[in-house]
Design brief:
Elements (H helix, E strand, L loop, with lengths): L4 H5 L27 E2 L5 E2 L1 H11 L23 H4 L10 E2 L11 H8 L2 E3 L16 E2 L2 H14 L4 E6 L3 E6 L9 E6 L6 E7 L18 H14 L5 H12 L5 H16 L2 H18 L4 E7 L8 E8 L1 H6 L6 E8 L7 E8 L5 E9 L4 H15 L5 E5 L3 H7 L11 E5 L1 H12 L2 H12 L3 H14 L12 H4 L15 H10 L1
Parallel strand pairs: 12-15, 15-16
Antiparallel strand pairs: 1-2, 3-4, 5-9, 6-7, 7-8, 8-9, 10-11, 11-14, 12-13, 13-14
Helix pairs in contact: 6-8, 7-8, 11-12, 13-14, 14-15
């Protein structure tokens, strides 16, 4: 459909008005000779001198530099606004050409035309409660687009784009052909590089009832900007929470997928694109080693792809302060794994220890594709090679098959001759509950495992037998030294679970 002529004819304004004057001025009052003008009091005013002084006042980028005129300053040097870090006039104030110090000796009548000429129109910043106006500036095209969308959403209106290029954006009301005259034109100004509203006819003259539960302009891009700070503080904030936040602000019940896409865009904006982040990983690890001498990093790569590109598989790292600090900690390591949230469903393996103040002390990390015999074996071998060669270290973990196989593999250096393997009591109780489905029995198992004295352990197990005789057989294949405190011989220093590693996972998420 042909565009309504009003959308272009009414908006055919210059993309870059020259507010400071131009050598190509075609005014009929301009004089073509080079003679000096004479004021009423007989002083001669050199037009070239005025132009030279004015150009000195106006910075190269078109901004206004105001020279200090205070009597406390004992020289006539021009004030360097850029060097002083001043951004210009306050928001909402019109800027006028300000004469430099050399003009103070000139005829005031000759200066009058300059003082009456506004160099830059109003540049008040837009906010969600205000109306647009000509001269408003936005840092980029995306900012003006977002502002118009918010304006339309809150006013229950819609707009259509009639013209869009990298430097020009023109929109009008969707009911423009029905008589609403609302329209807006903005363009990038060469003088300051920002987008500026050059034509605006508003507010709307149409009447729009609230559209529906949703709004066409409340898209994932708008939602991205609205939830960006929330995602920055807590990337694990759920989509339903963000959905309710959008609903409370705009009174629109947008589709769940819009919010999901908005959160996805916000995460990419704050933390970077997933693929690009993995590409940056080698450089990040190199920088980590250069800035923290002694930090150890080891890579494992897969087979090259069809383009002969190296394919990332696993990476292990341990910070130098952690390696040095472990020498002063209890010889006890807790290991566990957790999912990584994002596009690539990989796993984070982590080893933590406990310092003398009973605080969590991170020891080593690894990113792997899955928890398996190979990945856990590689992680434990890296611990032996890069972190500690101390014998007699106690390792506390769950009973993941990959961990059991890795601990029993002599190549990894964690067999019974060099280390002690203990199980997390919380995981033992969870596995027991999956089999028998009784919270009462589960709690009793934890009480039994946490007892310090063998007689108290036996008393708890006797009570467990009385409640359910069949459940005692479940413990037959478990070495009591691996899951109870009473028979541990002190290797686990009273620590019964790997919850400390779980606390670290919460911080990393």
């Amino acid at each position: 459909m042909d565009e309504d002529p009003r959308s272009c004819d009414d908006m055919n304004t210059s993309e870059d008005d020259d507010y400071c004057g131009s050598d190509g001025d075609t005014s009929e009052d301009s004089s073509e000779d080079d003679t000096d003008d004479e004021g009423e009091d007989g002083h001669h005013v050199d037009d070239g001198m005025i132009r030279y002084a004015l150009n000195r006042v106006i910075a190269d980028d078109g901004s206004l530099s105001c020279p200090p005129l205070s009597n406390e300053i004992g020289n006539d040097d021009f004030f360097d606004e850029e060097a002083a870090g001043i951004d210009g006039a306050p928001v909402g104030v019109r800027e006028f050409v300000v004469p430099s110090a050399v003009f103070m000796e000139l005829n005031s009548a000759a200066m009058q035309p300059l003082n009456e000429h506004a160099m830059i129109p109003s540049r008040s910043l837009w906010n969600e409660a205000s109306e647009f106006e000509k001269g408003m500036r936005f840092m980029c095209k995306v900012d003006i687009q977002h502002a118009v969308k918010i304006y339309s959403i809150k006013g229950h209106r819609r707009f259509v784009v009639t013209h869009s290029t990298p430097d020009v954006w023109i929109v009008r009301c969707k009911k423009y052909l029905d008589g609403c005259t609302w329209r807006l034109r903005c363009s990038r100004r060469k003088s300051h590089g920002m987008f500026e509203i050059s034509t605006y006819a508003g507010p709307h003259t149409c009447i729009y009832a609230k559209l529906s539960k949703d709004h066409a302009h409340l898209d994932s891009t708008v939602i991205c900007r609205e939830v960006e700070n929330v995602v920055r503080r807590d990337p694990s904030t759920s989509v339903p929470v963000l959905h309710q936040m959008i609903k409370d602000k705009f009174s629109y019940d947008v589709h769940y997928k819009k919010v999901w896409l908005g959160k996805k865009k916000a995460i990419a904006k704050v933390f970077g694109d997933w693929a690009e982040s993995y590409k940056m990983l080698p450089r990040w690890m190199t920088a980590l080693q250069e800035s923290n001498p002694g930090t150890r990093v080891e890579w494992r790569h897969g087979e090259p792809n069809a383009n002969n590109e190296v394919v990332f598989k696993w990476v292990f790292w341990a910070f130098a302060p952690s390696i040095a600090g472990f020498r002063h900690c209890r010889p006890m390591i807790q290991i566990d794994g957790t999912f990584l949230y994002g596009k690539y469903k990989q796993k984070l393996l982590i080893a933590t220890v406990v310092d003398s103040n009973n605080h969590v002390f991170p020891l080593a990390f690894a990113i792997v594709d899955e928890e398996s015999r190979d990945s856990w074996g590689w992680f434990m071998a890296c611990l032996r090679h890069h972190v500690t060669d101390r014998d007699g270290v106690c390792v506390i973990s769950d009973r993941h098959p990959g961990i059991l196989l890795a601990m029993n593999d002599p190549r990894n250096g964690w067999t019974n001759e060099r280390a002690q393997h203990r199980f997390c009591l919380r995981h033992i109780c969870s596995n027991f509950n999956m089999r028998f489905g009784s919270k009462e029995l589960k709690d009793l198992v934890y009480i039994a495992g946490a007892q310090h004295q063998p007689r108290k352990f036996k008393a708890a197990m006797k009570e467990l037998h009385q409640l359910n005789p069949e459940c005692i057989a479940w413990f037959t294949d478990l070495d009591r030294a691996q899951w109870t405190n009473a028979y541990d011989k002190g290797y686990r220093y009273g620590w019964m679970t790997t919850n400390l590693a779980g606390i670290k996972f919460d911080l990393l998420r």
